């Protein structure tokens, strides 16, 4: 019969070494690489698509606003021109300060013609 060897009691004095090059029983092997660079594709991702759609809508709304503003300015300019013409015709006076009826009558005639056309 062989003599039994004594088993060491408690924890062993040596601690296992953890090296990155070698996988041990306490360390799982690292198969996946973190922060792996993905190949860049031409296809935009969802946030980029949403941003593009927002920009398109904003540019379309801005174009509409510009058009409305231009139309409004044109109407105002035409109205101011018409009003200036009317005030010039009404404010004309003779040498003695009496209003000129000739220009007033032409203005009234113009108004009547416009009403008939409508």
UniProtKB/TrEMBL annotation:
It comes from the Eukaryota. Residues 39-51, 59-74 have a biased composition (Basic and acidic residues). InterPro entries: Fyv7/TAP26. Residues 12-21 have a biased composition (Basic residues). Residues 1-74 are annotated as: Disordered. This is Thyroid transcription factor 1-associated protein 26. The lineage of its organism: Eukaryota, Metazoa, Ecdysozoa, Arthropoda, Hexapoda. The gene is LOC4800394.
């Amino acid at each position: 019969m062989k003599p039994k060897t004594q088993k060491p009691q408690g924890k062993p004095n040596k601690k296992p070494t953890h090296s990155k090059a070698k996988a041990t029983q306490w360390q799982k092997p690292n198969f996946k690489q973190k922060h792996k660079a993905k190949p860049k594709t031409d296809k935009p991702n969802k946030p980029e698509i949403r941003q593009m759609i927002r920009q398109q809508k904003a540019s379309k709304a801005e174009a509409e606003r510009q058009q409305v503003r231009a139309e409004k300015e044109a109407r105002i300019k035409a109205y101011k021109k018409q009003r200036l013409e009317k005030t010039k015709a009404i404010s004309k006076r003779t040498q003695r300060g009496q209003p000129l009826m000739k220009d007033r009558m032409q203005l009234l005639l113009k108004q009547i013609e416009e009403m008939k056309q409508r």
